[in-house]
Amino acid sequence: MAGPTRRPLMAGNWKMNLNHLEANLLVQKLAASLTEKQLTDVEVVVLPPYTDLRTVQTAVEGDKLLIGYGAQDLSPHASGAYTGDISGPLLAKLGCTYVVVGHSERRIHHHESDAICNAKVKAALTHGLTPILCVGEGLDVREAGRHVSHCAVQLEGALSGLTAEQVVKIVVAYEPVWAIGTGKTATPEDAQEVCGSVRERLVELYDQDTAAQVRILYGGSVKASNVAATMAQPDVDGGLVGGASLDAEEFAQICRFPEHIAR
Ligand SMILES: O=C(CO)COP(=O)(O)O
């Protein structure tokens, strides 16, 4: 559970799902399922495909919904001849506040390196977007017991050259690849082990105060039935939710997790 200065963040990564009509419906249903207090206690964000962003903006701004939104990727470049890419300024103009960087699906399918993630994190910050930087290991790395060092290398690569003032603005998401879309959730202890090690690494790279401000999410088969136990861990400040965020009621239940954690 988040410390006093870290507001929990629950972000729904829709991946390549839901057209703009479905997006509008889901955002309206989600907002209607949560009270103002719940939306204040937990920051709720949706990360739709690019093609839905204008519709989500219209819904959020038109009805003053307390829901944030962002994109699943951005170009490291601000503009120019990059066919098919979408830049930070284009996203910021649509009211996006978050952008995912380095999701394992992009690292795998688009061969994104830590250096590319670093350029994308910098581009996001330059254009006023909060990057949600994903790190996580595959099954082979986990079975070899190298998951902590693997995530540390990804973290350091993506943060290279960033100042403490910049790092406090980013969100890190630990997503073990073997737990994504498989129904295999990491145990709360597994999530804490890596999220805690990420924070320790931030202390080493920066300082205690900086590390204490960075929100660290867990992602991988998060559901209403398992969210509370994971969020109760001291270094887990929220979730990056895939499949379960496509159902408004299930995602709303996930966002209500603080009610199931004894404080
Ligand atoms: O990749 C994820 C979120 O970015 C996790 O996806 P699932 O919740 O579907 O496992």
TrEMBL record:
Pathway: Carbohydrate biosynthesis; gluconeogenesis; Carbohydrate degradation; glycolysis; D-glyceraldehyde 3-phosphate from glycerone phosphate: step 1/1. Keywords: Cytoplasm, Gluconeogenesis, Glycolysis, Isomerase. Substrate binds at residues 13-15, 181, 221, 242-243. It catalyses: D-glyceraldehyde 3-phosphate = dihydroxyacetone phosphate. It comes from the Bacteria. Its EC number is 5.3.1.1. The keyword Isomerase applies. Homodimer. This is Triosephosphate isomerase.
